[in-house]
Write a structure and sequence with these properties.
Elements: E1 6-8, H1 10-17, E2 22-25, H2 28-31, H3 38-52, E3 56-63, E4 66-69, H4 73-82, E5 87-89, H5 94-99, E6 104-106, H6 108-118, E7 122-124, H7 135-138, H8 143-150, E8 154-157, H9 166-175, E9 180-182, E10 202-203, H10 207-219, E11 226-229, H11 240-256, H12 264-275, H13 279-303
Parallel strand pairs: 1-4, 2-3, 2-7, 5-6, 7-8, 8-11, 9-10, 9-11
Antiparallel strand pairs: 3-4, 3-6
Helix pairs in contact: 3-4, 3-13, 6-8, 10-13, 11-12
Length: 305
Amino acid sequence: MKTDWLRCAPEVADALAEGRPVVALESTIVAHGMPYPQNLATAQAVEALIRSHGAVPATIAVMDGAIRVGLSAAELEQLAQAGAQTLKLSRRDIAYAVAQRRLGATTVAATMLCAQAAGIRVFVTGGIGGVHRGAQQSMDISADLMELARTPVAVVCAGAKSILDLPLTLEVLETQGVPVVAVGQEGFPAFYSRESGLKADFRIDEPAALAAFLRCHWGLGLSSGVVVANPVPATHEIPAAQVEVWIAQALREADEQGIHGKASTPFMLKRLAELSQGRSLATNIELVKHNAVLGARLATELAKA
């Protein structure tokens, strides 16, 4: 990628040059995933957690005609305040945002692409996108799954967002050759809930063992990403049956209002926060922090090689 279009913050550039651990962070969760000021407070807390565990955080966004890998405090606040006015960027949207000098927040797919271009192998998010419910008719499948198939970055997440069709999401990941590794349990987590009723491909609990698996995966020439599924802490879990009640109502409302495509996930997350009286937002914040700790520990182990 042309260096004029990819600018690493000095802290990130120094860490990469010295082989120190760096953890990529998406910016859609800041601009579109939470309201202000919770989004800013969460982003700041996540970055602080990563630093406290010995790694350097690199929040990724498009600003001033370039992909920015690592944001200053002022830039992070600018992104948080802009919120939904910020372009939501997947792979197809990055060049437009850069060329038009638009402010853009990167999704999982776009963040993976940019992280790999910068030389970052570990990325922390809340939950990956996947196959949307009703995709048999709508063909609404997140670009995150295709990016995982071709971009060698480990994505630490709390599974896939529970608003999705999780069985079909796992089927697509299997077809694309993307390993799904659960941490601390055999089952694949469902974002707000620890268990989805589905099994992950593998279970690896310790960061050192995860790092060894990643080195082997990529060392064998396998160019896909890896889903590292880290379940939400039990103290912050919401029972799946309760989540399903809220999802069903939000899906009906989205259908009635004609909301689909890239607008569907922000709408669903907002409605779930409202229907749960803030409980889903609180769980979202806690699971991202939990993932940040694992991501920092994993990046630290990978940096030892």
